[in-house]
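Researcher: I'm preparing a figure for a lab meeting and need a structural model of a single chain. I don't have an experimental structure, so a prediction will have to do for now. The sequence is pasted below. Please return the structure as tokens so I can convert it later.
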Amino acid sequence: MQLRRTVTLKVVVTEKFKEETLKALDEALEQLDQARSQIDFRSRIYLTELQRQDLSQAAEFRRRIEAEKRRQDEMKEQLLKQREEITALELGSEYTQGTLEGFVDIQVGDNLQAKLTDAEIVVKDDQVVELREPQPSA
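Model: Understood. Here is the structure written out token by token.
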């Protein structure tokens, strides 16, 4: 029988990993800034029109825009924090990039807890360099 389990994806930190990850983070930050500029520009025009027609709708629209701006600010803060974290990583260290789902075969007599414990895949420059299976306790 097969069961699903969590598999942790770890990356060996290399110059290539740092460069690619920082580039992706910078692009995400740029897109966020562009989206913010668009919201500012479009909402200003729409809000001016709305204020002439219905003040209560204008107030509600302003609350929604402010909530969206706060959400974007939080996203930007997370991206900047992640950028700092990646910059500080030492070459050769392992960085947990995320989790995947995998399957594990179980049989009668297996230690279920040991089988369902997280396995790890270690990657270096997009190449799998190690598969780590949990070791059963004695």
